[in-house]
Amino acid sequence: PFTIYKFRTMTDAMDAKGNLLPDGQRLTPLGGFLRSTSLDELPELFNVLKGDMSLVGPRPLVMKYLPYYTDREQLRHSVRPGITGWAQVNGRNLILWDERLAMDVWYVENWSICLDLRILAITILKVLRREGAAKDPDSVEIHLDQERLHRVSDKNINARS
C-alpha cells in the first residue's frame, strides 16, 4: 500500500443527510479542466520517482477491492501500478470492470519495453486529443465492489427463481 498523490478536483459537499453529493455536483471548475486534460494525474509522477509506481502498468486501485479480484485478476499486482496502462488506452473508465481487469492481466502476461512505448505513445495522443476522459463524472462505472456484490445478489435471486 502507498499514498497516491493527486490534485484535489472535488469538494466534500454533502446533502442534508450527510451523504456526499454526486461527483458531477462536487467537481470544481479547475477540477473539471484538470480531469478533461488528464493533468490531474501529474502529481503521480512523485509516486514514480519514489518507486511506488511506474509510468506504465495497471492503474492502482483501492485496497477495499482486494477481496473482489479473481485469482487470475490478482496477477495485475505482479507489476508496479502505472500512471497509464493498456486498459486506459483501450477505454479507460468507460469499459466494464471485467474487461478492464482482463486487460490488466493481458498487459502483465505480454509485457515488453515495446508494449510500454506503444502505450506511452497512444496515451500522449489521447491526452492531446482529450479522448477517453469522462466528461461527466457521474457517467463513470460503479465501483468494483458494488458491481461484484450486485452480481452475487443477482445470481442468488436467479437461483431462487
Summarize the structure.
The chain is mainly alpha-helical and 161 residues long. The chain is 43% helix and 4% strand.
Shape: globular
**SSE series:** HHHEEHHHH
Largest sheet: 2 strands, parallel
Spatial sequence of strands, sheet with the most strands = 1-2
The parts where pLDDT drops under 50 for at least 5 residues are: none
Gyration radius from CA atoms, angstroms: 17 Å
Q: Whole-number average pLDDT?
A: 87
Kindly report how far apart the N and C termini lie: 42 Å
β-strand amount: under 5%
Number of helices: 7
Can you give the helix content as a percent range? 40-55%
By helix and strand content, what is the structural category?
Answer: mainly alpha
Number of strands: 2
Write a structural description:
By secondary structure, this protein is mainly α. It has a domain at 55-160. The protein has helices at 23-26, 29-36, 44-50, 86-89, 97-109, 113-129, 144-160, and strands at 54-56, 82-84. A two-stranded parallel ribbon has the order 1-2. The radius of gyration is 17 Å and the shape is globular.
What layout of secondary structure does this protein have?
Layout: H1 23-26, H2 29-36, H3 44-50, E1 54-56, E2 82-84, H4 86-89, H5 97-109, H6 113-129, H7 144-160
Parallel strand pairs: 1-2
Notable traits:
161 residues; mainly alpha; two-stranded parallel ribbon
